[in-house]
Amino acid sequence: MPFVRVALEVPVAALYDYAVDSAAGLLGCRVAVSFGPRTLVGVVVEADVVPAVDLARIKPARVLADVPALPVAWLELLRFCAGYYQHPLGNAIGAALPAGLKAHKALAPALWQRFSWHGLLPVFTKRDHARAAMAARLAAGPCFGFELVSQSPKALAYLEAWQAAGLVQCAGTAPLEVGASPAVNQEQSDAVAAVATALDPARFLASLLHGVTGSGKTEVYLQLTARALALGGQALVLVPEINLTPRLLEHFRQRFPASVIVSMHSALSESERTHHWLLAHTGVADIVLGTRLAVLASLPRLRLIVVDEEHDPSFKQQEGMRYSARDLAVYRAKNEGIPIVLGSATPSLETFAHAQSGRYERLVMKSRAVTDAVLPEVHIIDLNTARAEHGIAAPIWDAIKSRVDAGEQSLVFLNRRGYAPVLSCASCGWVSACTRCTAYLVLHRRRGLLTGGTLMCHHCGFAEAVPLSCPTCGNVDIRGYGQGTQRLEVHLAEACPSARVLRIDRDSTSRKGAAEALFDLVHAGEADILVGTQMLAKGHDFKNLTLVAAVNVDAALFSADFRASERLYAQLTQVAGRAGRAGKPGLVLIQTRKPDHPLFRAVVAGDYDGFALSLLAEREAAGLPPAAFQAMLRVEAKKLEAGLSFLKQAAKADVAADGIMIYDPVPMVLTRLMNVERAQLMVESPSRPALQAFLARWLAWIGANAPASLRWHIEVDPLEI
Ligand code: ADP
Ligand code: ZN
Ligand code: ZN
């Protein structure tokens, strides 16, 4: 009897053997198996194996043949991901698959087929509105089975009956249609041509598309996608933020009206995610556009990968399997022998270093694409000498007011949400602290109200009403100190009574669809002043925005994290890049108490290369990434001492470690989170293979020696220190 090895999403990191009638063609198939008292769905990762356990204990597997097997290249991606990020293969596959493919209910092929109505629509009775709606939808144009399922649970049965009666037919694939594109400029066409050399003969080529903000990188992606589709391929486009997907989807839909384009991000419902995944996996979808999790989609015809804003830390998954979608995308392109484009105005130092060493090809776009649009002028305002009101320097107030008068938009960037970062009593020194975390409770006001509101912990979600008086001394004069976006919004509205002020941050966009609605208002010109966090800084193409002001950026200059200045440079350049994109000159004002800091000088000069080279030299001298590779062991414990003492043991674990530097265990910056104490231990090596080999041995030691009362995980290539 043949046997297969199956990856299951279970806590114990192992692969499990099951018996099948025939192992032929089972690699990558889903199988339903019994595991203890449960039935689980797993994926065959090795077909025809010699079982590792006693034959008598081996149970049969039921093959699920509803969906094509997962491609070999996909299995290799997941195997690499599991190995590199030190995660069990079964759990890696579990994280990649949508819920629908992990359920042991067979999926109907009609879900990912497209149908259309042929002939006249019958007259349905009033009570038959579900069928009437379905038929109308089918008559309006081809639509997928899964789109109908959301209209009626019996949709598939109706479809089948209509098909049998000849009323509905499967719609074939539409030929590629490419909508009108602008005449590309020389820089754009050079970039397209360079990547295209690797499209036709399909070979691996990693390119850094280093294009200033507004240089028209999207158009390069669109042109390359057109070529990939013309070659019969699929394109995968990754963006860092969900909020960037609607507009980009719109661009792609306009350019490729007949192609099947699906989105993949965490705001989709489970069933939407399953259906979009199925379209990608069955090769029906031509373009997949999504956030980091989309890198794990199965794409049998994949021909091109684009990672937009590749420097963005959001590409790193921060829980469960802590993978970098950008790095996996590069592996994937290499493994499948296809080109990948990493686009950014401010590349990560890792990517920049690869471009310097020649591993990545560097494609430069130095000017803005729109005729007459130039990069904004950047001025630094010295807060030590400038007059300030409500924490905002006078020149910024003046600039905002003159924009309002001119009917142009301004953006004020403040990366701190809420009304005030802390509430405090001046008489006894009480401060609002979270009882569960090492963090302050942030004061949030209700819209338009200057009293009351909520104290909220931004880390654990704890919330309580603002007390009427100091909880320790009874003093009624308790105040919020410092300024968040809510408070700034109030001040801006007071100072510019005729202006429409719009706040965009996580609080104002928490409802589904709220972010899209707010960004639509901005694009429609129905806002004069935008105030918000880094959500505003990324990627958006605002046409009428001519002023950007960055306030309160200094904290990053003093951060203990060695990546803080790289991040601040990127953030400032990105937010500055929202100004002056459509021909009207843009102005950027940055207020600081450290006006002579080299970082600001580089931002003013727009000298990314100079800044990146100096950072790179610093990192090399200090032996830090990208000159070295790091991993972090983190523990969570009831008592900090218990966590730290285990980390001390782990640091001394007897697992031969040549060329591995082990740091001292330290409490995390946010030490207590939800009443759990957290500590970490960093390991580092100039050699990636040495680090990988060490981690595998270390992981085994930790697994065998960690007390059951501790939770722990390893993060490879951590971005936050
Ligand atoms: P980036 O992503 O590089 O910051 P975008 O792709 O958002 O820039 O493009 C910026 C603006 O330039 C957009 O409004 C886009 O429509 C416009 N654009 C792009 N290419 C061209 C071109 N060849 N001619 C004119 N306008 C262009
Ligand atoms: Zn008090
Ligand atoms: Zn908390």
Strand order of the largest sheet: 11-12-10-13-14-9-15
Q: State the helicity in percent bands.
A: 25-40%
Question: Kindly, what is the distance between the CA atoms of the first and last residues, rounded to a whole number of angstroms?
Answer: 51 Å
Q: Ligands in the structure?
A: adenosine-5'-diphosphate, zinc ion
* Rounded radius of gyration (Å): 28 Å
In terms of DSSP E residues, the strand content is 15-25%
SSE topology:
Elements: E1 3-7, E2 15-19, E3 30-35, E4 38-47, E5 61-64, H1 72-84, H2 89-96, H3 99-102, E6 114-117, H4 129-140, E7 143-144, H5 145-149, H6 155-164, E8 168-170, H7 186-196, E9 205-211, H8 217-230, E10 234-238, H9 245-255, E11 261-264, H10 270-281, E12 287-290, E13 302-308, H11 325-336, E14 339-344, H12 349-357, E15 361-365, E16 377-382, E17 388-389, E18 392-393, H13 394-406, E19 409-413, E20 422-425, E21 442-444, E22 454-456, E23 463-465, E24 478-481, H14 485-495, E25 501-504, H15 514-523, E26 529-532, E27 545-550, H16 564-576, E28 587-592, H17 598-605, H18 608-622, E29 629-637, H19 640-651, E30 661-662, E31 666-673, E32 676-685, H20 688-705, E33 711-716
Parallel strand pairs: 9-14, 9-15, 10-12, 10-13, 11-12, 13-14, 16-28, 19-26, 19-27, 25-26, 27-28
Antiparallel strand pairs: 1-2, 1-4, 3-4, 3-5, 6-7, 6-8, 17-18, 20-24, 21-22, 22-23, 29-32, 29-33, 30-32, 31-32
Helix pairs in contact: 1-2, 1-11, 7-8, 16-17
The structure holds adenosine-5'-diphosphate and zinc ion (2 copies).
Residues 182-185, 188, 211, 213-219, 369-370, 541, 581 line the site of adenosine-5'-diphosphate.
